[in-house]
Design goal:
The protein is an alpha/beta fold. The chain contains 5 helices and 10 strands.
């Protein structure tokens, strides 16, 4: 297999989203980095990372635990998509910020990033996850817009499917 999802989840929302994305992409492998750490990431050529933002723009704790290892992975020749979770009402000034840390590291390491999404339909003041007026990946707000999650996942997976799955068969 050449495609997998790696996520971390404390509340269970990121796990749910990862599983929905997996199902939409023909049930690709899903890894909880809280269990596996960064061990299997290098084994995959096409990767989706799920990173929830906690408190005031921080990475979820399991991401923090693997961050030193993650920063040393070579992503040259890999295609990567990112999804993130955030709360646009409670944290409008740090909405989905943690995605940016992953994005920046992937960019420095030579990854090809796919799956940028529009900021339309969200209400927040600022986000580090916005580059050139788009989010660096799919953003889900299960706290305030759970009714939009399935549609957002479908639209995003339809968009990235060719890039993320093209070499899995």
């Amino acid at each position: 297999m050449t495609c997998a999802i790696f996520y971390a989840s404390k509340s269970g929302y990121a796990k749910e989203v990862a599983n929905k994305i997996s199902f939409a992409l023909d049930e690709i492998r899903v890894f909880d980095i809280g269990v596996t750490g960064s061990e299997y990431i290098s084994d995959y050529k096409h990767i989706i990372f799920g990173i929830p933002t906690w408190d005031h723009g921080q990475m979820q704790k399991d991401w923090q635990k693997i961050w030193d290892d993650f920063k040393h992975i070579d992503f040259k020749g890999k295609t990567v998509a990112i999804f993130g979770l955030g709360d646009q009402k409670k944290y409008p000034d740090e909405f989905a910020d943690a995605m940016r840390y992953v994005y920046d590291d992937l960019t420095k390491s030579g990854a090809t990033i796919v799956g940028f999404t529009s900021t339309q339909g969200y209400q927040f003041n600022q986000s580090k996850a916005v580059v050139d007026d788009k989010f660096v990946g799919l953003v889900i707000d299960e706290q305030n817009q759970p009714e939009l999650t399935n549609t957002r996942i479908k639209n995003w997976t339809d968009e990235i499917k060719a890039d993320i799955l093209h070499a899995t068969s």
